[in-house]
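Worked Example 4.2. Consider the chain below.
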Amino acid sequence: MKHIVKIMGLCCLLFAVSSQAELEIYKDYDLGREIISMTTVKIDPNMEDVYLAGLRESWVKAVKLQKKLGYIKDFKIYGSELPQSGNFNMVLMVIFENSADLEPNQKKYNAFMKSWGQANQDNSRKISKTYPNVRTLTGEYRLREIMLK
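Applying the procedure from the previous section yields the following structure tokens:
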């Protein structure tokens, strides 16, 4: 019983210290300018290659063009080495230089659509209609780096 009381006292002390340790932005930490748009995906068992093949002909083509046009900094795809664990097993990321790159821009949109072309647009629509057969989107996030000082 003495040990339980000691442990509970220690936990209360740690909680009290941690609750007083509030940090202040720019004094204790900075925020990065880069923005990461992240989508988590749960791919059905044995469908990873099917999904990746579709991505290569749609999403990857589109983000490669966006990168070439200078609209995004980079993109990445991550796959879990433990595909049956958790709520997702693949992550799609688009990295923006800063939040201004997320703003709607008709000039950029028109330039992208002109470069993208009707054939790619039609193909992407056709491919994306099959995605619900092999995957479920489980989350979308917009991330910014936090740099503790």
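The radius of gyration is 22 Å. The first helix runs from residue 2 to 20. Compare this with Example 4.1 before moving on.
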